[in-house]
């Protein structure tokens, strides 16, 4: 009897061991294979650290499939046609509607049909190991991955876990909203047909870009803005000029307006505003902010709040956890792909240095400090006209206690602007710190200004003195000559 009992006990122990998830140790585990996670993995692998990357959807993330790339593919024909319509001799040839089917087909090609084979090939080329499935923290330095079949695998990190899971669309709490099947940024950039009527709720970047794109593709667009203006995080003239152009293109913009209720019946969306107005449409897009994708990644197992933004220092290390990094949107510092990739380079370098017990350079503008998140964040809004900015607006600089002067120039006065055609409308504002006469920020609105913002980013980041900028000669005749006009306006004020 004793022998039989021992045999059964041994069999039970063997069965228990066989059902335990397989465990693999790495130097670094990255949660999320968007551009941010890819860049963290690239940096750690380049330094020789073994790295695992976990992805539950598609490698390449939001930017590649539902944000930067497809949205700009939709917008590029819109902006090209707008430029052409300003040019005598060409404008007569482009008065007809856009070929929406061709635009959407080209957009589809930018996402590779929402397949990630090429992205997987690139990631695997770095030497990182890709794990498909849902990754959750299950304790310090430990991630459990559950694949589509329910099988689990435990990944442990000797040095670091990097959370790069990004953000998702935030929807308002309206009764029955799920039944309406609203668009978010994902549907707005991946839709395969043009809605006859589209309501856009919001006044930020996604709202203005998608209003611009779908209006040009044939939708009748109504924009509902809770605040007083579009693009309210930029200088006031940015939203004003974009609103004027959208209105001229046929869109209706209602500021100071909120959605009281929304329903869908027989395919038609009905919105009732807080003022009692009833607006019908075929689709409704809510572009009302972002939430972190941290609700189901196991934060509670390490004492953090599920669904929260993650607080980090300038090396992107999560407060109170010397092995955990939060990179990109999840830390809420700057919800932009290029800024997230910048953070990834910083975080990757910090992880590598700490793994080697090397000196961490976390002082401002050091190798392991994402200082630009505070001082020099560039952004381009790809509407017609484009809006581009870097650094602080006048209001932000004043709130921060800086003694500054705003210098304004009408972009149409620049010789290069005239080459863009008749009726060029644009504006530039430079924010000068009067203590050291460096530039704190620059905002430009007008056709083609998106390609100017990097020069401003360099000036702000490098804290180039105004006296030195006089020796940076802009090429004639280009729009970049606005720099000379701004310097002259500052001198002559």
Written overview of the protein:
- Pfam families: Pyr_redox_2 (PF07992), Pyr_redox_dim (PF02852).
- Disulfide bonds join 63-68.
- NAD(+) binds at residues 202-209, 289.
- By secondary structure, the protein is α/β, with parallel strands linked by helices.
- Helices cover 34% and strands 23% of the residues.
- The chain has helices at residues 2-19, 35-46, 61-66, 68-85, 100-110, 117-125, 177-180, 185-190, 205-217, 236-249, 337-355, 372-375, 394-399, 415-418, 453-461, 466-469, 482-492; strands at 22-31, 51-55, 129-132, 134-137, 142-146, 152-163, 167-169, 197-201, 220-225, 252-255, 259-265, 268-273, 278-281, 283-286, 290-292, 324-326, 379-381, 387-391, 404-410, 427-433, 438-445.
- The strands form 5 sheets. Strands 1, 2, 3, 4, 5, 6 and 16 form a 7-stranded mixed β-sheet that branches. The chain has a 5-stranded antiparallel β-sheet with strand order 17-18-21-20-19, sandwiched between helices.
- It is globular and about 70 Å long.
- The termini are far apart.
- Mean pLDDT is 95; it is low at 1-18.
Radius of gyration: 26 Å
The fourth-level CATH homologous superfamily of the largest domain is: FAD/NAD(P)-binding domain
Q: Count all strands and give the number.
A: 21
* Average pLDDT rating: 95
Give helix % range.
Answer: 25-40%
User: In total, how many domains does the architecture comprise?
Assistant: 3
Fraction in beta strands: 15-25%
How far is the N terminus from the C terminus? 102 Å
What's the shape? globular
What kind of sheet is the major sheet?
7 strands, mixed
The CATH topology of the largest domain comes to: FAD/NAD(P)-binding domain
CATH architecture of the largest domain: 3-Layer(bba) Sandwich
| Helix-and-strand structural type | alpha/beta
Number of helices: 17
What is the highest CATH level, the class of the largest domain? Answer: Alpha Beta
Domain Pyridine nucleotide-disulphide oxidoreductase dimerisation: 377-483
GO molecular function, one term: dihydrolipoyl dehydrogenase (NADH) activity
Family: Belongs to the class-I pyridine nucleotide-disulfide oxidoreductase family.
Disulfide bonds: 63-68
């Amino acid at each position: 009897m004793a022998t039989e009992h021992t045999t059964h006990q041994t069999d039970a122990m063997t069965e228990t061991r066989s059902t335990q998830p397989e465990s693999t140790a790495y130097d670094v585990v990255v949660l999320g294979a968007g551009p941010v996670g890819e860049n963290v993995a690239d940096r750690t692998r380049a330094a020789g650290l073994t790295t695992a990357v976990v992805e539950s959807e598609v490698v390449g993330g939001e930017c590649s499939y539902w944000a930067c790339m497809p949205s700009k593919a939709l917008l590029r024909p819109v902006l090209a046609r707008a430029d052409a319509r300003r040019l005598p001799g060409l404008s007569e040839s482009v008065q007809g509607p856009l070929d929406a089917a061709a635009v959407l087909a080209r957009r589809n090609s930018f996402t590779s049909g929402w397949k990630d084979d090429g992205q997987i090939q690139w990631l695997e080329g770095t030497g990182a190991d890709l794990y498909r499935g849902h990754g959750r923290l299950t304790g310090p330095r430990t991630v459990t991955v559950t694949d589509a079949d329910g099988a689990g695998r435990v990944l442990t990190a000797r040095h670091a876990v990097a959370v790069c899971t990004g953000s998702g669309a935030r929807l308002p709490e309206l009764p029955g909203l799920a039944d309406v099947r609203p668009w978010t940024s994902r549907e707005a950039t991946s839709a395969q047909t043009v809605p006859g009527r589209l309501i856009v709720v919001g006044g930020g970047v996604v709202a203005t870009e998608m209003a611009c794109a779908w209006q040009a593709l044939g939708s009748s667009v109504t924009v509902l803005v809770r605040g007083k203006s579009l693009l309210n995080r930029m200088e006031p003239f940015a939203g004003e000029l974009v609103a004027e152009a959208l209105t001229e293109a046929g869109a209706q913009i209602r500021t100071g307006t909120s959605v009281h209720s929304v329903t869908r019946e027989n395919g038609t969306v009905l919105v009732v505003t807080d003022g009692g107005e009833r607006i019908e449409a075929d689709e409704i897009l809510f572009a009302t902010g972002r939430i972190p994708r941290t609700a189901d990644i196991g934060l509670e197992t390490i004492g953090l709040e599920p669904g929260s933004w993650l607080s980090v220092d300038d090396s992107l290390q999560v407060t109170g956890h010397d092995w955990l990094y939060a990179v990109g949107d999840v830390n809420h510092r700057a919800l932009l792909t290029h800024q997230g990739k910048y953070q990834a380079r910083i975080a990757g370098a910090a992880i590598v240095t700490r793994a080697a017990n090397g000196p961490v350079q976390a002082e401002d503008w050091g190798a392991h400090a994402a200082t630009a998140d505070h001082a020099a964040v560039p952004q381009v809004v790809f509407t017609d006209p484009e809006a581009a900015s870097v650094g602080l607006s006048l209001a932000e600089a004043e709130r921060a206690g800086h003694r500054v002067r705003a210098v304004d120039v009408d972009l149409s006065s620049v010789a290069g602007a005239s080459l863009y055609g008749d009726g060029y409308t644009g504006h530039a504002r430079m924010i000068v710190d009067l203590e050291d006469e460096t530039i704190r920020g620059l905002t430009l609105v007008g056709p083609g200004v998106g390609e100017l913002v990097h020069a401003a980013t360099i000036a702000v980041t490098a804290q180039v003195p105004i006296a030195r900028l006089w020796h940076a000669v802009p090429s004639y005749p280009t729009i970049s000559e606005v720099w000379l006009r701004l310097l002259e306006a500052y001198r002559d004020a």
